[in-house]
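seq/struct pair 1
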Amino acid sequence: MNSNSTPTTPKLDLDTHIQPSPRSYELVAGEIGRHYEKMFNELMESLPADKAERLARWTGDEINEWNDETVWTYKGSTAPGALSADGRLRTLDYMGVSRSLVFSDPGVQATAMAQGDLALDTMRHWNDFILDFSSTNPDRLRGVAILNTFDVQTAIDEAERVIKAGGRAFVVPSSIAPGDRSPASRELDPLWARIEEANATVTLHAGGEDGFLASRGWDDGVDHLKFDSIDYAAEGEQIGTYLFAAMSLAPQNFLTVLVLGGVFERFPRLRFAAIELGAHWLAPMALHLDHTAQIFKRRFDGVLTMKPSEYIRRNVRVTPYRVENIADYIDRYGMAECYCYSSDFPHPEGGNDPVTDFGNHIARLGDSMNQQFFSTNGEWVLPPLS
């Protein structure tokens, strides 16, 4: 492995996850965690022996060894630091990472962002867990609390509770209008104002776009567009080809409304990031919004004082997938300050050598871009707490 050969240190990692084993899901998710464990046990009983054995290697307890093999190739709950704060800090040290955002497992996020009492219970249970996890080192382990936004006041109250307890990062769903209102509505201003005041960060993350499209049938009847659920431990992207191609639609819509609705005009220090949603869409969207603002110039008089692309460059950061050629994006559109490093640890989508993967993509842009991508760009959404 040559992941530590990249000269830029220390790195900021904008996408890491807690990955509990089935036996520890209840610890991070509460009641729904017991359901997940039951589902897993039933799945294991139904699988052929070879597939069950393979899956078991990714769903055991975390290992307490730190070397190139364990840190970079062990995935799922067996990875060192998958669940424990002390283990995670040692893993960050090995990776050369100074600070990281720490998100939930996708199942926890999906449940907490849904409607109903179970969703709210899961949200609060996860938030309590991640606050405790992060308390070991709040600066390096920036736990990301989940906000359920079906009811605006509930989201505001939970944000306040988390901030008072020391939390400084949040993830919201991109798929729904909060409280059935525009995210740029003045009714949401208290939420954005409180997050800005706390010097906290609001994010969108993969999985939060579920339900944006009115129908789930867009890949029905087309097998190659769907997720291959048989390859449980594949090292490729753990989503279907259609979802991979279309999952940025909801974030684009959400961010379009924030920008054109004047949220970043009213809250110039609001820190915002789109995580694990790719980066191909950001600059073309920014150019399109500039065009829109020019066409409807009179309508935006008194609402926007800058070009939409300028708000994006100032307030927004994104994490590309390791397969994206970021240098081409920058050559074509600029906006080099918006792209940031992420490992997706300990999920297999991050690959076994993300530092080298990304480093190779941006190498021709020189050491300055290397420093920007791996460190300084991410400081906007992952600032030091001291």
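seq/struct pair 2
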Amino acid sequence: MNELYYGDNLDVLRKYVKDESVDLCYIDPPFNSKRNYNQIYNNVGKEDVAQAQAFVDTWVWDDLAIKGFEEVVENQCGICTSQTINLILGLEKVLGQGSLLAYLISMTLRIAEIHRVLRPTGSFYFHCDPTSSHYLKLVLDSIFCGQGGDFSNEIIWQRTTGKSNASRRLPQNHDVIFLYHKSEKYTWNKDALYIAYDPENLNSKTTNKYRYKDAFGRTYRLDSLISPNPDRPNLIYEFLGVTKVWRWTK
């Protein structure tokens, strides 16, 4: 297709993407993080550079959520499974008509459309975080497993540093990626995995980072030992002539 669309992916999927025409889909949607995200863009208008709110990752039960709820439970689009309808009705009883249900309905509509456009050999990667991943997997199961597809992997993407104040809870340092296949006929390029893990095939940016080898020939990189959380008096000590808050005990 070789085209890039800008806008709501639900509208684009419904208007421009045909049934069973896509081999692979990956989405990194809002996480229901209750945060606002901004982007810097070049404005053709009065100002050369302006900052705009990219999206508000805070969901509310409003007319749009009610419309989406009706679309799912009445199967107005004709692609919702009975499992999905029963799931959303059940979640309404458990969660109530609030922000979390509004978020899950928004994701359900899009996941159903993605399932529609995938070829029988197609695969789907859904990127999220632990905020709502347990509910999202139920939605994914109801749409994919309810129509002959299958859940394949829960991939953990670990960050280098965690997010959150570690003095009040353990830091969050990973995202979740769910992998689903539309059918048992899915395509799996296993050779690509070996290429990805072969040090001889790493790009220059990666090899510049991981340029050291230990006594066993394993490649590694050097990283900062400084703690991202300064409120750790038990980790303050002198190391190599420098006194700081370190990541680990001496």
